[in-house]
Amino acid sequence: MSDARAEILRRVRAALVDVPAGEDPEDVAVARGYRTRDAEASREEIVDRFCAMVEDYNAQVHRVAAPDLADTIGRLCREGRLRQLVVPPALPEQWRPDGIELVEDHDLEVSRLDGMDGVLSGCASAIAQTGTIVLDGGARSGRRAITLVPDHHLCVVEAEQVLALVPEAIARVAGAVRERRAPITLVSGPSATSDIELDRVEGVHGPRVLDVVLVE
Amino acid sequence: MDRGRAAMSAPTSLPVAGSRTPGPREPFPDAARRALADEQLRHNIGHATKTIREKRARVVGELPDWEALCEAGRAIKERVLRHLDDYLVELETSVQRAGGHVHWARDADEANRVVGDLVAAHGAEEVVKVKSITTEETQLNEALAERGIHCWETDLAQLIIQLGEDSPSHILVPAIHRNRAEIRELFMRTLDEAPDDLSDDPRALAEVARRHLRRKFLAAKVGISGANFAVAETGTVSVVESEGNGRMCTSLPEVLISVMGIEKLIPRWQDFEVYLQTLPRSSTAERMNPYTSLWTGVAPEDGPREFHLVLVDNGRTNVLADVVGRQALNCIRCSACLNVCPVYERTGGHAYGSVYPGPIGAILTPMLEGIDRAGSLPYASSLCGACYAVCPVKIDIPRVLVHLRHLEVEHTAREGGLRARLGPERVAMRVMAGVFGSRRRYEAAQRAARLGQWPLAHGGRIQRLPGMLAGWTTMRDLRPVPAESFREWWRRRSEPGEVG
């Protein structure tokens, strides 16, 4: 196998005879002329844009004031007939609705997750430009499996977590990736496929329903 | 498996990298003629490409900095490719530091053997796989099947292809040549989960696939994926997808094996900020695809306990060695070039005889496999340039096409012996070059044509040329040489006494 490594590297070097020996990777100019932040939009505009983009994916957005959060989650559970939710162990107390069974994820088996009615999580950040939720495996996002296997995902996004553009979100999670090898998942709407005659169907293998609760 | 390639064997001279089927492919014109006769195919592909094209233009138009993003995407790839050896070694170190293992594979057989050995070492007889064109290129499923390992395709379209023993026809929506009635019939025939009263509503069909695959996902010990990007700096690998099958395959099994071409590298974590904007909009014409997974080796207490990254060459270093063609390795597999191509729109993907169809396939396949195997593909284009205009990593496909046509002509002249050197097209081109090379000869030829064309021209058109020239007029009319050329008119009007 080390033969293969040596051979491939030899082939690569032979293929690059035209590259001057003294050239540094940084000598190949990369002009980053694109936007890395949105200087013009106000906070409200950014949050409004996020909500509009999420709804464009056929996900539901519920905007609530902080004191009403737990009640809203409780109402959504009753409407969606969700009796049992899996949650990351560190889910804040004030998010937890009354009358709904919350099962903390302490390395639950996937078969157990498959039996859950839904999942309640937070997120690491969110992107207005694309209506994306960023999960980082941290205290609020939980393990990857819990937001994947159950069919209904309730995700709490705090208004100040919403970033305007994709580059801001990539920069925001870089530390978690470098320091704790955080697995990052970008979620934009419910799972979907257009594989049959390009007819969009929401809900394939990932959660079929995504409810975003935006706390202001 | 024979993927519709002609099973002829012929002497080959250029290196043929890692192909499991020897000999040249069926020439594109023959395959295209067959595809054009399939009306269902033409209808499906025409509808699909038009729909995605329009949607894509809309979401690309939303970004005021689109051009700057594409330019950055191109430049980053140029940097990677010019220093690929350094970046590969850096990636290896980063993945190992993050608790992963790195394997190298010179060709398809070696890649399949590495994956097969890893699966066998874990005693797994079934694996789940998320759509990966690289593993289609290496024909991994067939290689695993020979070792008694069944590979479940989990992407809905790939499942349709696998159950139908079919081959993909589009990079992004591989089963686009199948309509809902055909898929319903296929599911009824092959899946136990299909109810007797299954309708042909895509919702109902997706539901059957979901139930069928969910058991596999939850039980799978080994998952296999491709990779859209891998970051040299951090060792992070990513899969961009829509259905959630990518998340299932990369986060639920105990062991994850990712197979990637060596060109899929990006230098730094920050570079995601470019490609995660350009890829979804160019590909599915969405602002963002539903799910993107980015993992860095083995995450503490989350997901697979073992991670293997298989780096595959399989002809990519041939492409790298071609200074003009190298840019084909910029490709991020978005498929925008397929959707705008007037040739692809009519023939569909199968005519290209490769897992890489459309304009990108027309340049990539001959370079990956050798011009002797796929020499007709660079001609599968009108050189209209629409592919270059939409490419989010700015691959100058028309330029590479012309370059490859040149290589093909030289190759044929060199390898084809006297017959090729005296072939009618070659002789005709030689004569043309001579005629166009001198004003005197050119004008003499014009006069001769004017005399010779009178029995052929009717109503200002030549509809049929005689003999070996007939091929030119099978698809188009020719304008006759006019009674007076511009130069003749100019000379006449400049003569004394003629100017008014």
Structure explained in plain terms:
The complex is a heterodimer of chains A (216) and B (500). In chain A, the strands form 3 sheets. Chain A has a 6-stranded parallel sheet with strand order 1-12-7-4-2-3, with helices on both faces. A 4-stranded mixed sheet of chain A has the order 8-5-6-9, sandwiched between helices. Helices cover 27% and strands 22% of the residues of chain A. In chain A, a hairpin with a 4-residue loop joins strand 5 and strand 6 (132-135). Chain A has one domain: Rossmann fold (3-Layer(aba) Sandwich), CATH 3.40.50.10420. Chain A is an alpha/beta fold and 216 residues long. With 500 residues, chain B is an alpha/beta fold. Chain B folds into 3 domains: 1-9 and 16-76 and 334-422, no CATH class; 77-316, NagB/RpiA/CoA transferase-like (Rossmann fold, 3-Layer(aba) Sandwich), CATH 3.40.50.10420; 425-494, no CATH class. In chain B, a hairpin with a 2-residue loop joins strand 11 (457-458) and strand 12. Chain B is elongated and about 95 Å long. The termini of chain B are far apart. The model of chain B is unreliable at 1-22 (pLDDT under 50). The interface between A and B is large, with 76 and 100 residues.
Radius of gyration of chain B: 26 Å
The helix content of chain B is 40-55%
Anisotropy-based shape of chain B: elongated
Which structural class do the helices and strands of chain B define? alpha/beta
Summarize the structure.
Chain A is α/β, with parallel strands linked by helices and 216 residues long.
SSE blueprint:
The complex is a heterodimer of chains A (216) and B (500).
Chain A: H1 2-15, H2 43-56, E1 60-64, H3 69-79, E2 84-87, E3 101-104, H4 110-114, E4 118-121, E5 125-127, E6 132-135, E7 152-158, E8 162-163, H5 166-180, E9 184-187, E10 192-193, E11 201-202, E12 209-215
Parallel strand pairs in A: 1-12, 2-3, 2-4, 4-7, 5-8, 7-12
Antiparallel strand pairs in A: 5-6, 6-9, 10-11
Chain B: H1 28-36, H2 39-61, H3 66-82, H4 84-97, E1 101-105, H5 108-121, E2 126-129, H6 133-137, H7 140-146, E3 150-153, H8 156-163, H9 180-190, H10 202-219, E4 222-225, E5 229-231, E6 236-241, H11 245-251, E7 255-261, E8 265-266, H12 272-283, E9 291-296, E10 306-312, H13 316-321, H14 336-340, H15 342-347, H16 358-369, H17 371-374, H18 386-390, H19 397-415, H20 417-421, H21 424-436, H22 439-452, E11 457-458, E12 461-462, H23 486-494
Parallel strand pairs in B: 1-10, 2-3, 2-4, 4-7, 5-8, 7-10
Antiparallel strand pairs in B: 5-6, 6-9, 11-12
